[in-house]
Amino acid sequence: MSRYTGVTPEDLEIMLAAIGVGSVEELFDSIPAGVRLRRPIDLPPGQPEQAVYAELRRLAERNVSAEDEITFLGAGMYDHYVPAIVDMLMSRSEFLTPYTPYQPEISQGGLQVMFEYQTAISELTGLPVSNASVYEGPSAVGAAAYLAKLANKRPRVLVSRGVHPDSRATLETLAAGYGTTVQEIGLDDGITDLDALRDALADDVSAVIVQQPNFLGAVEDVAEVAAAAHEHGAQAICATDPLTLGVLEAPGNQGVDVCVGEGQSLGNRLDFGGPSFGFFAATTEHLRRMPGRIAGETTDVDGRRGFVLTLQTREQHIRREKATSNICTSQALNALGGVVYLSWLGRRGIVELAELMLQRTHYARETLAALDGVHKLHDRPVVREFALRLDAPVEKVLDRCAARGVNAGYPLARAYPEHPDGLLVAITEQRSRADIDRLGDVLGEAVAAERRAAGVTA
Amino acid sequence: MSRYTGVTPEDLEIMLAAIGVGSVEELFDSIPAGVRLRRPIDLPPGQPEQAVYAELRRLAERNVSAEDEITFLGAGMYDHYVPAIVDMLMSRSEFLTPYTPYQPEISQGGLQVMFEYQTAISELTGLPVSNASVYEGPSAVGAAAYLAKLANKRPRVLVSRGVHPDSRATLETLAAGYGTTVQEIGLDDGITDLDALRDALADDVSAVIVQQPNFLGAVEDVAEVAAAAHEHGAQAICATDPLTLGVLEAPGNQGVDVCVGEGQSLGNRLDFGGPSFGFFAATTEHLRRMPGRIAGETTDVDGRRGFVLTLQTREQHIRREKATSNICTSQALNALGGVVYLSWLGRRGIVELAELMLQRTHYARETLAALDGVHKLHDRPVVREFALRLDAPVEKVLDRCAARGVNAGYPLARAYPEHPDGLLVAITEQRSRADIDRLGDVLGEAVAAERRAAGVTA
Amino acid sequence: MTALEGGTTPQQRERATTIFEKGAAGRRAFVAPELDVPAVEGLIPEGLRRAQPPRLPEATEPEIVRHYVNLSKRNFDLDSGFYPLGSCTMKHNPRLHERVAALPGHARLHPLQDPRRSQGALELMYELQEALAEIAGLPHVSLQPSAGSHGELAGVLLTRAYHADRGEHRTKVLTPDSAHGTNPATVTMAGYEVVKVALDENGGVDVDDLRAKTDEDVACLMLTNPSTLGIFDPNIEEIARIVHGVGATLYYDGANLNAIMGYSRPGDMGFDIVHFNLHKTFTQPHGGGGPGAGPIAVSDRIEPFLPRPQVVRREPSAPNGTTASAGHDGGRRVVGGPPTFDLDEDRPKSIGKLRGFQGNYGVFVRTYAYIRSLGAEGLQDVSEVAVLNANYLLARLREKVGDRLPLAFGERCMHEFVLTGAPMKKELGIRTLDLAKRLLDHGMHPPTVYFPLVVDEALLVEPTETETRETLDAFADAIAQIVDEAAEDPEIARGAPYTTPVRRLDEAGAAKRPRVREQL
Amino acid sequence: MTALEGGTTPQQRERATTIFEKGAAGRRAFVAPELDVPAVEGLIPEGLRRAQPPRLPEATEPEIVRHYVNLSKRNFDLDSGFYPLGSCTMKHNPRLHERVAALPGHARLHPLQDPRRSQGALELMYELQEALAEIAGLPHVSLQPSAGSHGELAGVLLTRAYHADRGEHRTKVLTPDSAHGTNPATVTMAGYEVVKVALDENGGVDVDDLRAKTDEDVACLMLTNPSTLGIFDPNIEEIARIVHGVGATLYYDGANLNAIMGYSRPGDMGFDIVHFNLHKTFTQPHGGGGPGAGPIAVSDRIEPFLPRPQVVRREPSAPNGTTASAGHDGGRRVVGGPPTFDLDEDRPKSIGKLRGFQGNYGVFVRTYAYIRSLGAEGLQDVSEVAVLNANYLLARLREKVGDRLPLAFGERCMHEFVLTGAPMKKELGIRTLDLAKRLLDHGMHPPTVYFPLVVDEALLVEPTETETRETLDAFADAIAQIVDEAAEDPEIARGAPYTTPVRRLDEAGAAKRPRVREQL
Ligand SMILES: Cc1ncc(COP(=O)(O)O)c(C=O)c1O
Ligand SMILES: Cc1ncc(COP(=O)(O)O)c(C=O)c1O
Q1: How many other C-beta atoms lie within 10 A of the C-beta of residue B202?
Q2: Assuming Cys at both sites, which of B45, B171, D76, D348 could form a disulfide with C375, CB separation 3.0 to 4.6 Å?
Q3: pLDDT tens for residues C131-165?
């Protein structure tokens, strides 16, 4: 017996008798001797709840979280405020503990949430159909390219270097499986090099993938990219940060065929990278090729409105090797957080929030670029994140800032060797002007100190 | 409109038209001009959720909580581990948000919880009837004395000096209202002076009140106190710490008529002193005199088992000035926490937990009393808390310990001027032997340092 | 639709079993920390040691969780539907408040922590005192009382202390007929005699009756304004004059404060003592019957008697412990560093303590968050929308069922209103109780019934400001539907509810043969 | 009892309305922080700026809360009742895990935080890798995959990389007929051809068929053991020999690991790659369809190809960045200070990344807490009770309905078992689907139906270890009652359910005319 299992000695006796065996061990007789584990599992003994809590607290305290410093770190996940109702609803047993809704009659709650979520994602992206979630952002990019391959069977995808490095890496890994060649299109002054893209395009290109805003924070001209792709019959795929769609045109309105992205910024925690959710929206043409669950509206035998998992003939449990994807367990709870967040934000709120980020991002960029030894890496419009160049070693500058309680951002050199001096700074509604001014002070002093150390005179 | 109110301009128009007024202000016309507030309320403007969260976090961080130090502070509230299921259940909307169950048909959940709670309290205290909660511990003592007065109309209560100082203070305040004289019975070597008690007892004594274990941590001979009270026809009232009843005899089995106490140690948070709950149990004789809600079992029109608030003719909403108490809103949610905690602890667990505290308390007492300049204040059996005497200024010693991350306990002088050198040390299952040893080190060094400062040579 | 509409729901088919009937001997959820000290026998002498362990449940964690989760589903709650329970102010409970109250710096703070190490808590309490003082229009606040009725008791005891201090011994407290039961019950507990004051034809205090009953034996008049009839007493200034004329205090039962924020303040009406129900106006969740908190605000003359300790702010310039600036003190400028906060126990005239420690701090955290969230404008919006919603709902109901369920007094209301079901009873043969029970089948919580006592077949409706027009319309429709249905067949309402986990319960039987615990 | 038993419940009477139908133009729950910087126009060129805002809901916080709370009540969940959904391991979800995962140090930790400032997270991941390696009996673990099927994909891509590294190009992957749909689907996505292996008469892999199909073109055999039939394959050693004989890898679908902890390990059976479903064996709540996590454990020969980054422990003696000791490394002694943890991106043969960042860390926190809670003994107890419960329930069902719902293969089972409803269908005229739907009226979640495909009218029952004997008995009784009822009147089951918020839904219609979003 443990705190989770309850076979009393009396239970055991009754149960063994009903089964007709003399011991529990006997039930494992079918395991051949040659593969039996002949010793206890080599793990520490179990612990009371309070001890486990204490241990997990100890570990938590060895991390510097967004609660412990003023952070401007983004690069794919962002420190947004998660409203209390999201936590409350995500922790309700009725949402937290059920399985995928295989029995729709007793799963209308979850199914309707999916339907509402799909509606919200469709509205955000400007595309008519959405699935109920995929794992997360980068793998969604890989899944989108697979959909393109299913659609047009072409062997090559073009991906902008402005797409998140993890997305590009994931795309490469997955494409190696389904047999698509990945070719990168470089950036020109912060955004996808349209000339290079046009040069690389041909009739064997399955899809063109661009990110909006791109990894350097720059707003791309998605319509141009989509038009170029379409000229060669390729699919236009856009990865996007959903919160920026409060001020940026919906990809669906710019000719994009598939829009995917990381949903973390919609009411999901940072959680050191997951779980969050990926979203996946497309044109109607692709509906029967979409990966993952899709909730659809229908009626019951009495004519009541209801919801079911629909178009399941796309899916692995029905179609097996002919399925359009292998995805099964996805991110339903996180997507619930997403649609609750979007409801909380609301039609006006998403614009207000995005506008606030836009203005503060502009302010931060100008404030920082005015510092000695700090320059804009590009001049493109930005919404919530921007890239700088420092006249000082970035990692050292970051350490100096961290020591003063400020996380100044992401060192671009980690993913972009061509920008060894690059720093990516992210803004959310949680970073006030005072925080930005503080970053300005701390960063300015750190750069100055490093330049002094390197013998540069300001 | 705010985030909680939703009258749109269109709503407003429709609503005013339906009412037949031209403006909202008009609805306040019945307030005479002479008592109108003619300026805005003088409070800061409203804040977004994230700002309020930040402000409350700022305040929280200006407190040193039991999460921030190793604490041996008790004296009425204790840092026990609250299991996660208690939080989970207390935060379910269905328990958190309803009112007192005035409509039993849609309140069976809450009513059954009360019934189960009453059963658990009755089991713990060894008394046949319990109410569904009172505010908290000290006021429960005052309420118990009021019950005694209702029962026997006598004008005097005797209260042991071992009863919590807040309970004695509250008793005095309330007794001043209902016209009972309160007389204190001193302590003798840590426990209630039985001779003094017998001397003070007479046929005008309504009740005798004792605390188990008492404020100095000592185990009282409750049966003796009860017997003495009964000899004079007085009620025997015992205040107790429910967790100690895992090892201490139930007051009901020792002849006590009313047993009350602070329920915080049962799955409730410290919360800087509240909300928690008070429990109130008694002999059947007192059932119709009890304060507060009582859930009772019954059946519905179809014969189904069900629960209702019962014996409401005791209560203010029915009996008004003839009610046995004025209590209305009580502590239902906290009592839910209590019964969930007791279910979690279980029949064996409460004994194990109390035994663990008993043993660690003994170990701690012996460890500390072995330090130079530290002595036991009394030699009585103790369960979870004990009193020491220090050969050094207690408040200064406490400051020294606090600076090293240890809260060594409660300085008795605050409530017992006769023990200017007294220190009360509390143990819970969260204080391990290692913590106790650390307290030994820190306390020993603090006492030594203070003695050195005072010129004492060890 | 038949009288047995709905038949037997799955919940109805289940027999209610308690946690004591679940589980099995030996099962457990708790795993004890290891005994890490030497085990010593005989630490408790035999006679004092418990002979038999309490027969608590024996169940695994999954069993316990499932038991209580399923019990929770047998409750109606505010997050699920409309809850217009008059006098209870069942407004939305923001979950932000639960989040901030759970921060370890608040939730795991020991009440006896040294004030120097609980500055955040004391600052919060001090600021809350200030805010409540401003809202009440009275300069001094004690946060200590645990609920409204506890605040009332504090208020009457303060009155006693105030008069005693002046060498006066008074014996009577006045309450109007419409008063909540806690008012007279409090008076008795505080050792006074209750004297009832009649209402006039508009539902206000009968000023003549009040004048007649107000003499030098009267210690206090307890009043709520707007009253439990939802009416703001137009004679409040005159009432205050009469009461103060004999040296008595005027006590404000703050249960109905939700109606007037930004429009009037008890202090400005002449009240000496006010209690707040933080679990009403300030949205502490009701928890199925608490916790709440009942802070009080008082005038200067009552201040010396306030319970101890008081939270005070000490200016940094003043040497510690010498000048404590309690209560409202105007300016907030800081000279020579930030102010500190402390607990002042040194109050020689204090009535003492009403409970342990400093009050229901967890509730204060929520209230503080609420006041910060809404701000001055938001609080005024609360009262405006509460009154607007009540009047709109009243208008809809008058339009639909005004003949069967007329308004008891007047034409309009403040934040709540009282209908009388007397015509409905007479004409349709169903009582207010039947209407209430039938509402349960509509998935709504009924209004308060049979209170206030002065109205026959009373129905006290308080929609609160957090409900939308759509919800109010749905409620009016449901009431109309029930009344229409009763006109056709009153038996349906008389037999209601049908779809609830249990149906009408035998309350008389429960009281006659009380079973108040599980027999094991 | 009639076919319409239960009639119309209150929930059934309510039309489902979405959040997009609630609220009204202008309402809001969000209050924006003030714009504290100078407002600048034209920051986004016109063509790129959004012309029309997305038509998101406009509702107050109370409206949103009530909407979703009421939606939640239209879900069945594990905290409310028995959920014996075969292959899904619906065991109790301890709330401790939610508490610890929500600690800000975990929940608000940015995935790109410098490893020096995320040592707690990296230590946790490292220790979890170690624990999973021990449980799998395979030395190296990557936590990265997001779910079981993602782990499968990782596994097949690893196989591809492994063979490619050896200069081999293989084209086929074998899966038995009983395999879960994700296995063949994964194979296709990873660019291989699926070859099915037959089962023998005991439900195990047909060794002869396997031998016949295993050649040098075969890259991998994917297997779950015990299989989805709940049977431990007695020929596992022979199977491993055959597969390894041609240089193929053996992949273990870990969905059924809950059956064997402490008794056997995939690594010891000869598997090269294993995935774990942390949302099954390790009790991450399912969330109505995720999140989960699907870490993989692999043998030495696969290790070089694992995804990047890997979490590594660096011994303090070693100069930073020079010696990374990845994976299992035996001793834990510390020389010269505590070890540090790091992310190792420098893996030249790695298949790359499967997703962003380091995986579903929040799930790892829960799993880590679970493993620490239970320890070695507790994990073995899990499997023992899971198998005991399954066999007991099987025995009870055989006793009661063994003729109508016989066990598909063999006599006993591991942690789950498959019944066939074929005799019931033939004799009583109700299908497994009808039985399942009728169970809904009994307040229980049905077992998995129509899977595995190899069994006609399959019913796959997995009670898990956290259920009590009483619950198993109640389930057996309910099944027996439904079968008896069907013997009297099969129409009842065919029309079921009756008491659920909606009744049987038109799935065909939904697929024919898909409506996958609200029309606004
Ligand atoms: C008018 C009125 N006064 C006083 C009270 C008592 O308040 P509490 O329940 O907080 O003790 C109530 C609460 O029901 C009330 O409505
Ligand atoms: C046997 C088996 N394999 C694989 C999977 C897929 O796992 P996941 O849903 O985590 O992708 C499942 C889950 O349903 C399963 O039961």
Answers
A1: 12
A2: B45
A3: 999 999 999 999 999 999 999 999 999 999 999 99
Closest CA to C314 of C299, C296, C303, C329: C329
Between the CA of D334 and the centroid of ligand 1 the distance, in Å, is 63
CB within 8 Å: A6 and C33? no
Instruction: For residues D306-330, give the mean pLDDT.
Output: 68
Residues of C in contact with A4 (CB under 8 A): 60-62
Would you state the torsion angle of the CA atoms of residues B73, B75, B77, B79, taken in this order, to the nearest 10 degrees?
20
Closest residue by Cα to residue D314 from D326, D302, D324, D306: D324
Q: What is the mean pLDDT of chain D?
A: 94
Residue nearest to atom 5 of ligand 1 (CA): C148
pLDDT at A457: 61
Query: H or E segment at B386?
Result: strand B385-390
**For C366-407, what is each residue's pLDDT tens digit?**
999 999 999 999 999 999 999 999 999 999 999 999 999 999
Cβ proximity of A367 and A437 under 8 Å: yes
Pocket test for ligand 2, best of A329, A331, A333 (most atoms within 8 A of CB): A329
Look at residue A178 and give its three-state secondary structure.
Answer: helix
- The DSSP bridge partners found for residue B299 are B305
What percent of chain A is modeled with pLDDT above 70?
100
ipTM over the 0.90 cut-off: yes
Phi-psi category of residue D287: left, alpha or beta, with phi > 0 → left and psi -120 to 50 → alpha? left
Taking alpha carbons only, the member of B169, B165, B162, B72 closest to residue B424 is B72
Compute the distance between CA of residue A111 and CA of residue D517 in angstroms, rounded to an integer: 12
D212 CB contacts (<8 Å, ≥6 apart)? none
In the block, residue with structure tokens 């319960």? C505
User: Is the per-residue pLDDT at D383 higher than 70?
Assistant: yes
Residue D97 CA, ligand 2 centroid: distance in Å: 22
Among protein residues, the one whose CA lies closest to atom 9 of ligand 1:
B329
Q: For chain B, how many residues are written?
A: 458
A136 has a pLDDT exceeding 60 = yes
Phi, psi at C487, each rounded to 5°: -65, -30
Q: Which residues, 6 or more positions from A43, have their beta carbon under 8 angstroms from its beta carbon? A: D131, D134, D135, D371, D375, D376, D379
CA atoms of B284 and D224, how far apart (whole Å): 62
Q: In b/e form, how buried is each residue of C461-476, taking b as 16+ CB within 10 angstroms?
A: bbbbbbbbbebbebbb
Look at D59 and B6 and tell me if their CB atoms are within 8 Å. yes
Higher confidence at residue D1 or residue A16?
A16
More confident residue, D322 or D188: D188
- Which subunits have 3 or more CB–CB pairs within 8 Å of chain D? A, B, C
Contacts of C105 (CB under 8 A, 6+ apart): B57, B59, B60, B61, B62, B63, B65, B67, B68, C120
Q: What is the mean pLDDT of residues C30-45?
A: 97
The amino acid present at D320, given as its one-letter code, is N
Q: Is A149 left (phi over 0), alpha (psi -120 to 50) or beta?
A: alpha
Helix ranges (DSSP H) in C166-206 = 182-189
User: Which residues partner with A212 through β-bridges?
Assistant: A240
Longest dimension (CA), chain A: 88
Cα distance between residue D260 and residue D224, in whole Å: 12
Which ligand approaches the C-alpha of residue D86 most closely? 2
8 A C-beta contact, residue B141 and residue C353: no
CA distance D102 to B386: 36
pLDDT for the residue D13:
85
Whole-model pTM?
Answer: 0.97
- Ligand 2 pocket check: which of D85, D253, D296, D460 to mutate, most ligand atoms within 8 Å of Cβ? D253
Both tokens of residue D165? 């590294």
**Cβ contact, residue pair B115, C103, below 8 Å:** no
pLDDT of residue D326: 43
**To 10 degrees, what angle do helices B332-369 and B433-453 make?**
60
